[in-house]
Amino acid sequence: MTAVRRRDLAALAAGLAVASWLLVRAWYGDLPALRWWQPAPLALLAVAEALGARTLRARLTAEREARAGRGPAAAEGRAAFLRPVEPLLVARLVVLAQASAYLGAVFAGVWGGVLLHVAPAAGRLPAAGNDTVAGAIGVGCSAALVAAALWLESVCRVPPTPPEGEGRPAR
């Protein structure tokens, strides 16, 4: 499995921003009003993935230090009490992170296209002011989801193995 390329995410977001801008420009009067809370699920998913990344990083660090004979768990003799991280869980989290990164890029593009259309019209159209707020929150929540997903993906990477004799406990 290869890592998500930031260039692909940026291209996806930019392409969908242009398409979204064209669609909103053509049918802005027919669209329902946008509300500030509509991008909230993206923010909740971003928070959940960031918390998951932080927790997984702490567990993996403790497990690696215990295996190497370092860290507080090994010093106190608690290495046997560490709950190991299941490899299948890490694989599932990588898939979740990659899917979330693409989802965040898609929504960043869509909300960005909306924002590109409504922000300049905020002064002359009364509805555009509220839509600008919703668009800005949407772009922010989408960017947060992409950032959290990329962080979770980086936490799930297997570190390179050190050369023989460096950082490995003696047998």
Short note summarizing the structure:
This protein has five helices and no strands.
Sum up the structure in keywords:
171 residues, mainly alpha, 0% strand, elongated
Walk me through what this model shows.
With 171 residues, the protein is mainly α. The chain has one domain (6-155). Helices cover 69% and strands 0% of the residues. The protein contains five helices and no strands. The longest helix has 32 residues, at 87-118.
SSE topology:
Elements lengths: L5 H22 L12 H29 L2 H5 L11 H32 L7 H30 L16
Q: How large a portion of the residues is in β-strands, by DSSP E?
A: under 5%
Q: Write down the overall geometry.
A: elongated
Helix and strand content put the structural class at: mainly alpha
CA radius of gyration: 22 Å
Number of domains: 1
Main beta sheet strand tally, sense and closure: none
> Helix coverage percent of residues?
55-70%
> How far is the first residue's CA from the last residue's CA?
32 Å
Give me the count of strands. 0
Low-confidence stretches: none
Number of helices: 5
SSE topology string: HHHHH
- The averaged pLDDT comes out at 89
